[in-house]
Design a protein that fits this description.
This protein has 301 residues and is an alpha+beta fold. The chain contains 11 helices and 8 strands. The protein has 2 domains: 10-164, Regulatory protein AraC (Jelly Rolls, Sandwich); 227-290, Homeodomain-like (Arc Repressor Mutant, subunit A, Orthogonal Bundle). It is elongated, with a radius of gyration of 29 Å. Residues 187-285 form the HTH araC/xylS-type domain.
């Protein structure tokens, strides 16, 4: 922040003070850009969003981004540290995406920048301009109490943005919550498979372990992995069988039973379909590969 700002806690400047960075970059602090005039684009992460007059952009720490800022555009950049904004938020900047939005709702402005635009209507943007102008004035003089006033103005700007785009933020928050819930459900399924691999497992068993209906789990697995429950279970069993074949002395029949195959012939057929070799041949090739080299004969006396 020291390279592009006068203060490490909070800084604000308009486009006349310094030339813009026109190559993708990232930084350790939060950033808000306010477009006052011009038509630009904001590339953030893998998304390209419009950045026209009356638009705000919100950038998380360490998120790669760049705004095009064509000649003649006018804008204001606000940089601030996490400690300045939320001293109570004791979370590493790289873990901010794991923070529940119910705890810090305004964090959604930064998290969802890649998925929506924050373009204010003229009447609401007038209030944005008022807050920005007050910040510019207060930051320039930096008197006793200035940091408290600046923090208050920043919080007002974030609160105004949340209120203006409440519908979009709530929709995206709900989708994010559902996605997190689905991820946790898939983790429970994977853990259940791993812990009960030797048993006879069904889709209903896994669904009960993940607190889902069998039909919902089947659709979720297909959507997220492109595979059915049976295909995933077989994949996990073959992977575990390879571990046992490579690192244990168990016979092929014992390995088959250990990973949930009651019949050795069926296990051999499924293993060959997956790996391209029978379990015995695969084990021999792996052990030959890992075997220490034979000692070389010494020089003749």
């Amino acid at each position: 922040m020291s390279e592009r700002a006068k203060h490490l806690d909070f800084d604000i400047r308009d486009s006349s003070e310094r030339s813009p960075l026109l190559t993708p970059h990232r930084h350790a602090y939060f950033q808000i850009q306010v477009s006052l005039e011009g038509e630009a684009e904001h590339t953030v992460g893998a998304s390209v969003r419009p950045f026209a007059s009356g638009t705000l952009s919100f950038v998380l720490p360490y998120r790669v981004h760049v705004v095009s800022h064509p000649p003649g555009s006018r804008y204001v950049i606000i940089n601030f540290s996490q400690a300045f904004w939320r001293p109570d938020l004791q979370v590493d900047a790289l873990d901010l995406e794991d923070v529940p939005l119910s705890q810090v709702p305004e964090l959604g402005l930064f998290l969802f920048q890649e998925y929506t635009d924050f373009c204010f209507p003229p009447d609401a943007f007038t209030e944005v301009r008022r807050l920005v102008d007050q910040m510019l004035l207060e930051n320039a003089q930096r008197r006793l109490g200035s940091l408290t006033l600046l923090r208050g103005l920043l919080l007002q700007l974030l609160g105004l943005s949340c209120r203006q785009f409440e519908t979009d933020l709530l929709r995206l928050t709900a989708a994010r919550t559902q996605q997190a819930s689905q991820h946790e459900a898939l983790q429970r399924v994977a853990r259940f498979m791993r812990e009960h691999l030797a048993e006879s497992l069904t889709l209903s068993d896994a669904a009960a372990a993940a607190f889902l209906s069998p039909n919902y789990l089947a659709n979720l697995l297909k959507k997220e992995t492109g595979k059915t429950f049976t295909e995933l279970l077989t994949e996990r069993r073959i992977e575990r069988a390879q571990e046992l074949l490579a690192h244990s002395s168990q016979r092929v029949m014992q390995v088959a039973h250990a990973v949930g195959f009651a019949d050795e012939s069926y296990f051999t057929r499924r293993f060959r379909q997956s790996v391209g070799l029978s379990p015995r041949v695969w084990r021999e090739q792996v052990r030959q590969k890992w075997a220490p080299p034979a000692p070389q004969p010494g020089p003749e006396a």
